[in-house]
């Protein structure tokens, strides 16, 4: 009986120490990915300052002339306001990241 208890405790500890142990996976419903065409260092600096808030923005690609950035839906209006104010050329690449994940997880 004691052996069974030890095994159960090891399983629980292993699961708790794993990064995503018994947690629900993160979802990305309505997170959007935008391509931002970068034409000067000031634009890159503004984008880098946005990327410091990892709850709202996530870098997907960092090229010389373009940056792909995932935007949290809570921040979308502010992102669009910044893009408009700065006069940046952008392109919506993925309107809903979770829909793309779900489509990739479907079994044939």
What do you see in this structure?
- By secondary structure, the chain is of the alpha+beta class.
- It has helices at 2-17, 41-51, 76-86, 97-105; strands spanning 32-37, 57-62, 66-71, 90-94.
- Strands 2-3-1-4 form a four-stranded antiparallel β-sheet, covered by helices on one side.
- A hairpin with a 3-residue loop joins strand 2 and strand 3 (66-71).
- The relative contact order is 0.19.
- Mean pLDDT is 86; it is low at 3-7.
- Residues 34-103 form the Carboxypeptidase activation peptide domain.
- InterPro entries: M14A-like_propep, M14A_act_pep.
- Keywords: Metal-binding, Signal, Zinc.
- Residues 1-16 form the signal peptide.
- One of its GO terms (molecular function) is metal ion binding.
Brief account:
One of its GO terms (molecular function) is metal ion binding. Helices cover 44% and strands 21% of the residues.
Task: List the topology elements.
Layout: H1 2-17, E1 32-37, H2 41-51, E2 57-62, E3 66-71, H3 76-86, E4 90-94, H4 97-105
Antiparallel strand pairs: 1-3, 1-4, 2-3
Q: Write down the oligomeric state.
A: single chain
Inertia-based shape: elongated
Q: What number is the mean pLDDT?
A: 86
Radius of gyration: 20 Å
End-to-end CA span: 45 Å
Helix run count: 4
Strand content: 15-25%
Largest sheet: number of strands, sense, barrel closure: 4 strands, antiparallel
Strand order of the largest sheet: 2-3-1-4
Amount of helix: 40-55%
Strand count: 4
What ranges have pLDDT less than 50 throughout 5 or more consecutive residues?
A: 3-7
Order of helices and strands: HEHEEHEH
Supply the helix-strand structural class. Answer: alpha+beta
GO molecular function, one term: metal ion binding
Signal peptide: 1-16
Pfam family, one: Propep_M14
Keywords: Metal-binding, Signal, Zinc
